[in-house]
Specification:
- This protein is globular.
- The strands form four sheets. A five-stranded mixed beta sheet has the order 1-2-7-4-3. A two-stranded antiparallel sheet has the order 5-6. The protein has a two-stranded antiparallel ribbon with strand order 8-11.
- The chain contains 17 helices and eleven strands.
- By secondary structure, it is of the alpha+beta class.
- Helix 8 crosses helix 11.
Length: 477
């Protein structure tokens, strides 16, 4: 045993020396990576990152090393871009070089995590198909309006009693995606639908946990240790089985000359990727919108004076006797500012999804080798104090000029920017406007506690900012 102990110590020391030598060569070879804190052997800088608030950790490091710095998450170098100028320079000015998608130990599929020609083809086809099915046209707007009406009826069933809006707000955007993909929607009391929403909610919370951040940097842990990643894998597997059943149903009744929905379009074009895209659209198109709505209602509860102004604008522009439509948005600058401020303030995806550089590149006099992971801090852009005075305060005035007209900002990047910006941005913007205005047209919002006592601090700020649980009463107007 003593001999084994000695050999174990020798092995650890040898590996540590090899790692340090590798780091030294990487930093002093053909150029140098951006500066950063000295990494520990094997662990790198992972102990300096708070898994529950990654963006705050990155901000702290940037105060020492500037807007472009290197962290080692495990043994892999990761270049972090902090602040609007660095993010814009990389993702827009050098968009092609920085358009690669970083790897993850968890099973990500489809447009989001593909690279190269496969990514370009799938993204192009996805956008074209969505446009053909009505993205930006009346057909998808009609679907959202119909679902908004169903959402109102479901909220009426609460009879003004306190409720946690998580599930109901998750159903609405999920049904919009379902109508686009499956040409059908679910009843809000459908047991399969309830389980489906539960799995989506559960997976989002798992993805934002500190444990998953550790697993992403040390994938071997997932093979030998129990943890929430097992639940994640099971949920993904269950959803894929459900999607496969739906795809098989479409195959039976496929009309090559008359596609009904996005699955039909993909079965005609490229059958093998239909499952991949369906999984992508449900995962990205449901939880992000529902979480934004849930977080947005929390801020409206916290700021009743803001809610009152939005409802005044709804009364003036839309009235009570017709459903809101996208044409109304241009006449509602305050509501538009509120929607932007909700997305800015909640900072839903603080570090976006990881990028990689597609080739060896020189960036700000630093050398970044091909394949290096790139993290962009969207928090540092959305909470920039020069562009948004007092950025930690919820203030729709950040997006209004002195005359009360809506004011655009280049710093508004909740969907990221550049070639890898969210492909579903148009759909998400449409849903947020129509769902929120329809809710506020039909209900007054009431908190069960004093609005001043509501806490809007996220319970986790890993991959996604997860809002705290709260109770709300929907009082019919």
């Amino acid at each position: 045993l003593q001999v084994l102990g000695v050999w174990a110590v020798v092995l650890v020391i040898s590996l540590s020396c090899l790692l340090l030598l590798s780091l030294w060569r990487q930093r002093s070879g053909r150029g140098k990576l951006p500066p950063g804190p000295m990494p520990l052997p094997i662990l790198g800088n992972i102990l300096q990152i708070d898994g529950k608030n990654i963006s705050k950790s990155l901000t702290n490091v940037s105060k020492v090393y500037g807007p472009v710095f290197t962290l080692y998450l495990g043994m892999r170098p990761t270049v972090v871009l902090h602040g609007y100028e660095a993010v814009k320079e990389a993702l827009i000015d050098h968009g092609e070089v920085f358009s690669g998608r970083g790897n993850s130990a968890l099973p990500h599929l489809g447009v989001v995590f593909t690279n190269g020609n496969r990514w370009r083809e799938m993204r192009r086809f996805s956008l074209m198909t969505l446009r053909n099915l009505g993205m930006g046209k009346r057909s998808i707007e009609d679907r959202i309006q119909e679902e908004a009406g169903c959402l109102v009826e479901e909220l009426r069933k609460t009879k003004s009693s306190p409720c946690d809006p998580t599930f109901i707000l998750g159903c609405a955007p999920c049904n919009v995606i379902s109508s686009i993909i499956f040409h059908s929607r679910f009843d809000y009391e459908d047991l399969h639908f309830l389980k489906f929403i539960q799995k989506l909610n559960e997976n989002q919370e798992i993805l934002s946990s500190a444990w998953i951040q550790v697993c992403n940097n040390f994938p071997v842990l997932m093979d030998y240790f129990p943890g929430s990643h097992k639940t994640f894998f099971k949920n993904v597997g269950d959803m894929k089985e459900y999607f496969l059943e739906k795809i098989k149903e479409h195959q039976e009744f496929l009309d090559m000359n008359s596609p009904r929905d996005i699955i039909d379009c993909f079965l005609i074009k490229m059958e093998e990727v239909a499952l991949i895209l369906v999984n992508d659209l449900f995962a990205a198109g449901t939880e992000t919108t529902s979480t934004t709505l849930r977080y947005g209602l929390l801020h409206l509860l916290k700021n009743p004076e803001v809610t009152e102004k939005v409802q005044e604008e709804i009364d003036h522009v839309i009235g009570r006797h017709r459903s809101p439509c996208m044409q109304d948005k241009s006449s509602m600058p305050y509501t538009e500012a509120v929607l932007h401020e909700i997305q800015r303030h909640i900072d839903l995806v603080p570090t976006s999804l990881p990028h990689t550089v597609n080739c060896d590149t020189k960036f700000r006099n630093y050398f970044i080798p091909k394949g290096t992971t790139i993290i962009t801090s969207l928090t540092s852009v959305l909470h920039d104090s020069k562009e948004f005075p007092n950025p930690e305060k919820f203030d729709p005035g950040h997006f209004l000029d002195k005359n009360g007209k809506f004011k655009k900002s280049n710093y508004f990047m909740p969907f990221s920017t550049g070639k890898r910006a969210c492909a579903g941005e148009g759909l998400a913007r449409m849903e947020l406007f129509l769902f929120l205005t329809t809710i506020l047209q039909n209900f007054h919002l009431k908190s069960v506690v004093d609005p001043k006592d509501l806490d809007t601090t996220p319970v986790s700020k890993g991959l996604v900012s997860v809002p705290p649980a709260y109770q709300i009463c929907f009082i019919p107007v």
